[in-house]
Amino acid sequence: MTAPRIIRPNVRSVIQQPLTVGESPVWDEETGTLWLVDIQAPALVRLSASGKIDRFDMPAAIGALGLCSDHRIVVALQTGVHLFDSVSGDFEFVSDPVGRDINCRLNDGKVGPDGHFWIGSISESKPQIDEAALFRVSADGSTRTVATKLTSSNGLAWSPDGRRMYHSDSRQCFLQAFDFDPDTGDLGNGRRLRSFTEDEGRPDGATTDRDGFYWSAGVSAGRLNRISPEGEIVEIYILPVAAPTMPCFGGPDLRTLFVTSLSTDRTGRFEAGTVIAFDVDAEGLPPFRFGDHPVG
């Protein structure tokens, strides 16, 4: 096994306003804007190419977002999945996968190649237990539970051909992959690709590049791991933030990595959550849009 290449990227700051828990960055290639969430604020944040920052206060904790073809945003709130109109400020309820009878909230999510919103939950029990799950939410509100016995569902991403889905559990520290049918959203065989140590970085949010590599935010190690389809860490990006939470590709050529982070004092000094960016020798893929493939 070849030792991973260590890279210290030339990082620039993207936002000056501090975040509590920055998460779920999504690049809208149609408008050249970056969307993200601040989980505990709670707020949806939009960064325009001009540098303008818009914050939209949310009525409950927000875990993740996705883009819609009608320019609304699908948001995962403590109260369920909603469609948010940033112009009118209106919300439209879609589904509440978790319900109120379990101590979990919606966490990491993405729109998949099938046009559905794939959203996982996180245990809010103290200590956390394996009561979380992964759900597939349709535009018509119908919802399917696709995985259970999770603690902190995370790391959703798809291979360039849409035929493999990646998924991690940040607390159980594993990365797995499933065969995936991009037309129906059906999951096939699942297999563990690797487990992580704290020093390697607990696997948080993730993305994939056009060459099929998986980029995982190592939230416990201040680094980003680029991982081969076989599960081998091939590159380690050492970051100037202690707790990176999720990367996404953006910019006009999809060769800029945007990385969110959370507030932490684990290094001995308090560090607010933020968004950083740096250019890489890899190209990302544009995001899928909710409802674009209305299959069952």
From TrEMBL:
Record-listed a divalent metal cation binding positions: 23, 154, 204
Required co-factor(s) are: Zn(2+)
Q: Gene3D superfamilies from the xrefs?
A: TolB, C-terminal domain (2.120.10.30)
- What Gene Ontology molecular-function terms does this entry list? calcium ion binding; gluconolactonase activity
| UniProt-annotated catalytic positions | 204 (proton donor/acceptor)
Kindly name one Pfam family recorded for this protein.
SGL
What keywords are assigned to this protein? Metal-binding, Zinc
Can you tell me which family this protein belongs to?
Answer: Belongs to the SMP-30/CGR1 family.
- Name this polypeptide is given: Sugar lactone lactonase YvrE
Its source organism is Rhizobium esperanzae
